[in-house]
Structure formats: structure tokens, C-alpha cells
Input
Amino acid sequence: MKDFFNKLLTGMSMGIVVSLIPNALVGEILKLIIPYFPILQHILDISVLVMSMLPVIIGVTVGLSFKLTPIQTASIGLASIVGSGVVQISTDGVMTLNGIGVVINTGITAGLAVLFVKYVGTRLKDYTILLLPALTIFIPGLLGTIILPFVRNGSGYVGVIINNITHLQPVIMGSTIAVIFSILILSPLSTIGVATVIMLSGIGAGAANLGVVASGVGMCIASYKANSLGTALAHVMGSPKIQMRNFFMKPKIALPMMITAAILGGLAGIVEVAGTPISAGFGLAGLVGPLNYINLATGGWNLFNITVMLSMFFILPIVLNVMFLRLFEHKFKLIKSDDYKVHFE
Output
């Protein structure tokens, strides 16, 4: 079972990074440029489309992590999009792609599909290419759609808890929400999905974003020795979810980032770092968090706001994470660089 979940989480992590990085790299920048160069709208649309392909990509990368055949892998990709909830069907039969779906249910469906194709194995013989895709869609894929409402409601309960926390004193609220989001970004749950469901805004959204920043920057720094520079930067420019497998196997690796998040979130309540439901789950990806803070702050691009932005989103996350990572590695000896090794094989 440990090996199964290892491979499942590894595949999910790869799929998430591959699908989300294109939009994370160019999304917010293009939104600033498009009013002057409308032709770039096509590039933005393509990056958004790729994000909606996340369930299929997760299914494929999960199949690859289990070293399945091309037909088995493609079948898992099809089942994953069926169970993800990313496709919405209107009353008149029109199908539309809506966001990235429920990521955790995509993973569950992909896992069920893997078990199914492994069980079927070579039993279908010459009829494999004819029957396996259909059977995988109609059995594990259909199971995914059946459990989708329950999984979606479960994610909603997390949102309810966070929504109640927003009524606390600003510093306590900011610190608590930042820690929660620093953990959510390492889980199969969508930080953007949770934030938009409860319409998290203001200081709560700013603190949530800083929690994601804390995890992204911290994981980038922690993983640099064990991975390539490109892989390390993917934690910040893409998503810290690349560490999802390692986090589930060894939750202690997130302790330095959680403490960093708590401090940043508390400071967000003091200096009033605000955000929107969309920016709450992005972190530094596409500079969504910093740009939204500046746009919402009174005075816009004045010296004070720029100083706060640079300090809260860049300087402090680096300084605090370096300090706590050294403390936990050398003083407490609870973590080591190999704990953050990302496996792509």
C-alpha cells in the first residue's frame, strides 16, 4: 500500500506541475500586457485551457509512474477526467470545461483506475484496445462521478472552518489561515478552490497567499541540494504540490514552512496585506499575490507599499525559511536535504 500511494502521489504531483506551470508563468503578466497587445490573448487562453486539462494529465502521469502500457495509461487519463468534475453539462447538453476540477477526486479516480487495469491485466487479450478504455471509463470513471459530490462536500467543510477563522482577531486570524494554506498547498486539495468557494478576501486572502508563499519558497530552498535548479524553482514558479508525496510520507518536512507561514500571516494582519479569492491560493506563481496586494493597497505603487510587498513576499519568506531550515536540520536534526528529493522516475 505504501508503494501504491507513493506512485499515485508522485504521478499526481507531476501532473499538477506540468499542467499549472504554463499559466503560472505567464498568466498575470499577460493580463497586464494584453490591453496593449490584444493578440497575446490567444496565449493566455491556451494556458487556461491547459490548466483545465489537469485531470487528463494527472491520469497519464499516474499511469506512467506505475509503468503501465500506453493503452492502460491513456485509459486512466480518460477515467480521471470523467471523475474530476471539470466538465459541466448544461440542461441543453452543452459541455464546458470549468476550472481544474476537484483534484483530490481526480486522484482517487486515477487510483481506482490503476487498480482496475492491473486487475484486468492481460485477461482481455486481443480485445484490450477495444474494451479496456470503455471499461475503465464506465467502471472506475463512473465510480469517480458517484463519489464526486461527497468529496466536494468534504472539501467544502475545510472552507467552512477557514471562514469561521476569518472572524478572529486579525493577527491570530492571519497566522492561523497562513498555516492552514501552507499545508493545503502540499495536499491534493485545491487552495484556489477552497478560497473561491468561501470567497476569501481582504487580509484573510492576503494571509492565505503568504502561507502558500512560505511553502513554495521554503520547499524551493530546502530541495535545492537534492534536486536540479529547475526543479527547485518549480516549487515557486509552479506549485509546492510537487512535494506532495514527500509531505505525506514525512509531514515533518513542512514544519519550517509552517512556522514561517505563521509569522508572515501574523504580520499580514498588522500591515494589512490583502488579497482576492483568486490570489489567495497562488503564492508567487505568476506574481499573482504581490500584484494583487499592490492593486488593493491604498496608494498603489508608492514607496511604502512597494517596501511591504518586497519584504512580505520575497525577503522575509527567504530569510525566515533559511533560518528555520538550518535550525531543524542542524540543531534539531529532524530533516535532511534528501527528504525533499523529487522522484520523476
